[in-house]
Records
---
Amino acid sequence: MFAYCKSIPLPYPVGKNQTGRCRGTPLGFKTLIRPAKEKLKQHRQQLAQIVRSHRAAPQAALIAHLNPVIRGWCRYYSTQASKRTFSDLSATLFAILQSWARRRHPKKCRRWVNQKYWHVLDNANWVFAARSGHDYWIRLTSHADTPIRRFTKVQGARSPYDGDWLYWATRRGKSPLISPRTARLLKRQKGRCNACNLFFMHGDVIELDHIIPRSQGGLDVALNWQLLHRHCHHAKSAAER
């Protein structure tokens, strides 16, 4: 029945204090939604295929191809009971990368191979990373580092059309459906567009803008980012040109 589902609801027996209830009657179990086994299998196969196709490629190129796949898959399942699944996937990918690294240096000992490809960065051990530039490291995104972001229920009888723009703009910043960067910028701007100073409403198209354009020497850093309505962004870009 769940062969093509991306997620599967599973009942877990629990005590009387954590059990789910139906019209006040304890059920004796709690329903948790977890990624489907078929989707786990497909994701593992995809990771293995990427590693296999980069047998002779530099480590930085392998990381650059793995990171978007890992981030996208984890973000999709980050609203479910996926923490144990993420940890298992991290262990699986570690084993795949160990085979990839040892195959490249068959005459070196395991300790030498580990020291070449895994490093200590930001007080974290066993980080699969490669140096890119003088002081810049490109590091592999870990499944296990993905935080679980629960969906927050809408308060009472609130509606996107009730005029409470502050509530909906703030809530949008906490949504697991948008990127962490957009959430941080919404919080910094207090739910307002930096161009027209109006609140972002439900259904508005929000775009990322560089305060100082890249063509004028602006940097692609957090201090130079802002969120604008799409029409405000178009007007700003036209004025800059």
---
Amino acid sequence: MTIPPPPRRKHGKNAFMFVIVTVALDLMGFGIIVPVMPELLKQVTELSAEEVVAWGGALTATFAVFNFAAMPTIGNLSDRFGRRPVLLVSIATLAIDFVIMGLANTLWLLFLGRALSGLSSATYSTANAYIADVTEPENRGAAFGMVGAAFGIGFIIGPAIGAAFSLIDVRAPFFAAAALAGINFIYGYFFLPESLQPEERRPFEWKRANPFGAFQHFRKLPHVVWFILAVGIFALAHSVYPATWNFHGDIRYGWQAWEIGLSLTVVGIGSALVQGGLTGWLIKRIGAIRTALFGYVINVVSFTAFAFAGLGWIAYLVIPISALGGVVGPAVNTIMSNVTPKNAQGELHGASASIQALAMIISPVV
């Protein structure tokens, strides 16, 4: 597939909004399929709800293995060839992944779909690099918060659509997600401008285009490697939730697909409100480091509360508290981005995404 030259547009609010919409649509497609995964796995494997949890964790780990291996390469490619082609190829491959999973009648096809998604899942890290390209350092906290809000908006709408389509057929949400990804690709193909100008790019280097090479390189930059480590430790804890929330709701609370979708919609509302409205203000008010520490404390409290939430309505009470912990990601991204050269932003966010993927390999298995 040939990617056309980028549209001739100036960077600014329009370019920023293009990326926000891209991220929202991408997460909407992902959120659509989450409520039906337990039922699809039960259908494909003919196992009980408790027995398919292990397969759900294995699918998440498969995504993470390929994501971990590929993200630094993808980040380096965006530093060499620009953000736009990387985003477009990623979105197109995601659409193919959803079609494969919608048609899958065997476990190996589901694993193939997750592997493809892991290889191409560049949207978040490349979107962050794009945002770093088009915003000034003092505005990046609010900008990264808006990317997080776009994730939240995608998770408001996506699970609700998935829950509705699940009433038609357990596979219908996958085809709806593929359609959304296709619309997203067409939108970006015609309207997304390139953010990284040719004179700002750098040669592609294989020694930096792998997880360990990227981490080695960032040791030369002040503090960055420690923040990447902090991102990984936090991801190790947080990755429990996207890997098991739908299975957890099915088994512990007896939720059906539409109820799982509803709970994720509430999660998305909290995320959008906090990251879109609170994060930028908080970073400007108390600084990125204090904002990150505040978020970590909130997450410790909310994770503990979820563990003891024996009834579904109690889990709903904890969700708004946990949403406040969403300030962590934008705050840490702001700190790292501000001490990283412009021509290494893709590499930075690729390395960060890669360490999060490594956590996603371990966390679902645990």
